[in-house]
Specification:
The complex is a heterodimer of chains A (75) and B (407).
Chain A: E1 2-6, H1 16-20, E2 25-27, E3 33-35, E4 40-41, H2 46-55, E5 61-65
Antiparallel strand pairs in A: 1-4, 1-5, 2-3
Chain B: H1 26-33, H2 41-51, H3 63-72, E1 78-82, H4 92-99, H5 101-111, E2 117-122, H6 127-139, E3 147-151, H7 161-168, E4 192-196, H8 197-215, E5 225-232, E6 238-243, E7 246-247, H9 248-254, E8 262-267, E9 273-276, E10 282-283, H10 285-288, E11 299-304, H11 309-322, H12 329-346, H13 354-365, H14 373-387, H15 389-396, H16 401-406
Parallel strand pairs in B: 1-2, 1-4, 2-3, 5-11
Antiparallel strand pairs in B: 5-6, 7-10, 8-9, 8-11
Helix pairs in contact in B: 2-3, 2-8, 5-8, 11-12, 11-14, 12-13, 12-14, 13-14
The chains are: A alpha+beta (75), B alpha/beta (407).
């Protein structure tokens, strides 16, 4: 299953992703996307997720394959 | 700054990194520890794994796994000793770079075995002494890998792993998105390994005295000693060293003892949380997990009973909100709002739903930044709501338990 990833350093809160993917994302009070729950994308929402990724004006939204083991945050 | 207080019998307070003359000199270092034996990369990974050495910068990630990831990248890595220490309540990295810098530089060489480039990322004020020492070590034929000094800005997030990597690559020292791991490809393309300077110093000790020796301190699951910076209502604030699992009261005693009855203790620093002032509480990941925290980078702040925990937390949250890197919308907007809302509660500007609003904002910012600054700030604030629940109720009624306790 794929997972949504937001590059928060790039996101400027245009809000398109929350409009295109209301099942997964909601806008916070400043217009930035907030996850409703998990950020994993069920197969049925895959096309909408891809559309949201493609249309993000800041190129901040990405789909990543869920893999075991995340990178450590800091030493 | 180091503790000179005798450890109580049975205490885990124990000097290792800071057991020497602590004059920072190369001749005293060599007289005490001798030259560093030579090891190849796989031997360094093996000894780090056998010792169970974890990162001392806060996250506690096993060193050997990061070393393995960098080795697996198959390209020459840049190895960075991280002495930035942006946490205001922490002084242990500065103490280490002053008192035992040769252990740090030894450990940097070990971590950099198999590479060609090592960096010590440290506050500019420490550079002059470090430069002289690096030159002296190079002149004495100690260091195979040349060491470059890079200035760490005095900012909370400048010590975060990806911020350190960015600074070393010549960019602004701010955190980056984590989609690509820097152990695979850092800014500039080369794999990067960022290790806290204390972790490197422990590695230098393990190389000489062995993983078994290292494991004689601490607990079976959390071996070794760690440096703690103890401050607040203690007679001799400073840096002490102890094995993981040390009783909180023993750490406080090693810092001269409490100067007043304590209300609570902040463990893990500004991204940590409040625990009861229970002298018997072990300072270990296992014992602190129920409080949602870990020993982190070893910061301990004792809060006297005469101080209000909500006011103190609001003050810290305000500091943290001022220290956002300014890159991520939820953090830039959310942390100031979280801090000001908590400040309203702390200053008894009560309105309906105030604690619930603090709680909501803390959860709203969590997980929504390039680094863990929003998460850590939220963790601290949420821990205050739990630890000072009675104070919250009193503040909503226009009263303050700390004030009333003073009378």
């Amino acid at each position: 299953m794929n997972r949504l990833h937001v590059d928060w350093t790039a996101c400027d809160g245009r809000g398109l992703c929350a409009e295109l993917l209301p099942e997964l994302l909601v806008e916070d009070e400043w217009g930035y996307p907030a996850p409703r729950g998990e950020m994993s994308v069920p197969p049925a929402l895959e096309p909408a997720a891809r559309q949201a990724v493609d249309r993000c004006p800041a190129l901040a939204l990405k789909l990543t394959r869920v893999s075991a083991g995340r990178a450590p945050g800091s030493s | 700054m180091t503790s000179t207080v005798e450890a109580p019998p049975g205490s885990r307070v124990q000097l290792r990194l800071l057991a020497g003359s602590n004059d920072g000199r190369l001749d005293s270092h060599l007289a005490q520890h001798g030259r560093l034996p030579a090891f190849d990369t796989s031997q360094v990974i093996g000894m780090a794994r056998d010792a169970g050495l974890t990162g001392r910068g806060g996250a506690g990630f096993p060193l050997w796994r990061k070393l393995s990831a960098v080795a697996a990248a198959g390209r020459p890595a840049v190895v960075i000793g991280n002495g930035a220490e942006g946490e205001p309540a922490s002084g242990k990295d500065r103490a280490l770079l002053t008192y035992a810098p040769n252990l740090v530089l030894d450990g940097l060489q070990l971590a950099a075995s198999g590479t060609r480039s090592a960096v010590l990322y440290a506050p500019l004020g420490a550079h002059r002494a470090l430069r002289e020492l690096i030159d002296a070590r190079r002149g004495a034929g100690l260091d195979r890998v040349p060491v470059r000094l890079v200035a760490a800005p005095d900012a909370f997030v400048a010590g975060e792993e990806s911020a350190a990597a960015a600074a070393v690559a010549g960019r602004a020292a701010v955190p980056a998105d984590k989609l690509v791991r820097i152990t695979e490809s850092g800014p500039g393309g080369a794999p990067m390994l960022v290790q806290n300077v204390e972790t490197l110093a422990h590695l230098a000790m393990i190389a000489r005295y062995g993983p078994g020796w290292f494991r004689a301190a601490g607990t079976p699951d959390e071996p070794g000693t760690f440096l703690a910076t103890v401050s607040g209502a203690v007679a001799a604030p400073g840096v002490v060293e102890a094995g993981y699992g040390v009783a909180l009261g023993d750490l406080v005693a090693a810092a001269g003892g409490a100067t007043a009855p304590l209300r609570s203790v902040l463990v893990g620093g500004y991204h940590g949380g409040w625990v009861p002032a229970d002298a018997a509480l072990p300072v270990s990941r296992a014992a602190l997990t129920p409080y949602g925290i870990s020993p982190g980078a070893g910061v301990i702040v004792a809060l006297p009973r005469t101080a209000c925990g909500l006011l103190e937390t609001a003050r810290i949250a305000g500091c943290l909100a001022d220290q956002v890197a300014g890159q991520c919308g939820p953090c830039v907007n959310g942390l100031p709002r979280l801090a000001s809302t908590l400040s309203d509660l702390a200053h008894r500007r009560a309105r309906p739903g105030l604690p619930a609003e603090v709680d909501r904002l803390a959860r709203l910012v969590t997980g929504r930044g390039a680094c863990r600054h929003p998460d850590g700030t939220a963790r601290l604030v949420l821990s205050a709501l739990r630890a000072f629940e009675a104070d919250v109720a009193a503040h909503l009624a226009g009263r303050c338990l700390a004030e009333e306790g003073q009378r």
